[in-house]
Specification:
Elements: E1 2-4, H1 5-18, H2 23-29, H3 32-39, E2 47-49, H4 50-65, H5 70-85, H6 91-96, H7 99-110, E3 114-115, E4 118-124, E5 128-136, H8 141-157, E6 164-173, E7 176-184
Antiparallel strand pairs: 1-2, 1-3, 4-5, 5-7, 6-7
Helix pairs in contact: 1-4, 1-5, 3-4, 4-5, 5-8, 7-8
Length: about 190
C-alpha cells in the first residue's frame, strides 16, 4: 500500500505544530526509511511506502507523545489534518454543506491519498453516515484511526455536535479487505 506525499506532510506538520520542541527527538526515534522521508523534501504529489511514510511515524506519535496510545496518536493527527485542510478558503464551504455531503466529498479525496483504496458512502441519514474503505491489500489500524479522526473533525467543523466515529465492521470480499466507518452526531 502507498500513501500520497500530502498525507506524509500532514503527519510531519502535526508534530512540528503540536510538539515543536520535541520534533527532532521524535524524528530520531523513527526507523531509517521514515526518517529519510520526513527529513527530506517531501513531494506532495509523490507516492510513498505507507509503512515508512505514514504507519511508522504515526505509531511513534502515539508512543512518544500519547503514553503509548497508538489510537490516540493517530486520531489526533487525523483531526489536525482535517483542521488544516478544511479551514481558510474551504471554511465557508464546510459550514454551508450538509455533513453527509462533506463526508461524501472527503471519501473521494481519501481515495487519492492511499492506494490501492476506494472509499464510498454506503448509507446516509439525517444524523448519521457510513463509509466503506475497500480494495485494501492489508489492514492498518493506525491509518484507519487517522481517517476516523479526520472524519470526526470534519463533521465538527461543519457544525455537528457530539460526533461519534466507530470502525464498525471489517471483512474481506473478492477485491480485498473492507473497513466500514459509522458516524453519528446530535
Amino acid at each position: 500500500m502507498e500513501v500520497k506525499g500530502t498525507a506524509v506532510i500532514a503527519i510531519r506538520d502535526y508534530v512540528k505544530s503540536e510538539y515543536s520542541s520535541e520534533f527532532q527527538k521524535w524524528v530520531e526515534t523513527l526507523p531509517k526509511d521514515s526518517k529519510d522521508i520526513l527529513t527530506g523534501a517531501i513531494d506532495s504529489t509523490k507516492w510513498y511506502n505507507v509503512q515508512a511514510g505514514a504507519i511508522d511515524p504515526t505509531k511513534k506519535i502515539g508512543e512518544f507523545f500519547c503514553s503509548g496510545n497508538l489510537k490516540k496518536g493517530a486520531w489526533d493527527a487525523g483531526r489536525f489534518s482535517a483542521q488544516k485542510a478544511l479551514t481558510g478558503i474551504y471554511k465557508i464551504f464546510v459550514k454551508a454543506a450538509s455533513p453527509s455531503y462533506i463526508i461524501q466529498r472527503a471519501s473521494r479525496v481519501f481515495s487519492t491519498y492511499y492506494r490501492p483504496c476506494e472509499i464510498n458512502v454506503v448509507a446516509s441519514g439525517q444524523k448519521n453516515v457510513s463509509v466503506e474503505m475497500s480494495k485494501l491489500t492489508e489492514r492498518h489500524e493506525v491509518i484507519e484511526n487517522r481517517i476516523g479522526g479526520w472524519m470526526q473533525k470534519a463533521l465538527e467543523l461543519s457544525g455537528c455536535e457530539n460526533v461519534k466515529v466507530a470502525i464498525s465492521e471489517v471483512r474481506k470480499d473478492s477485491a480485498g479487505i473492507v473497513v466500514e466507518f459509522a458516524m453519528s452526531w446530535d
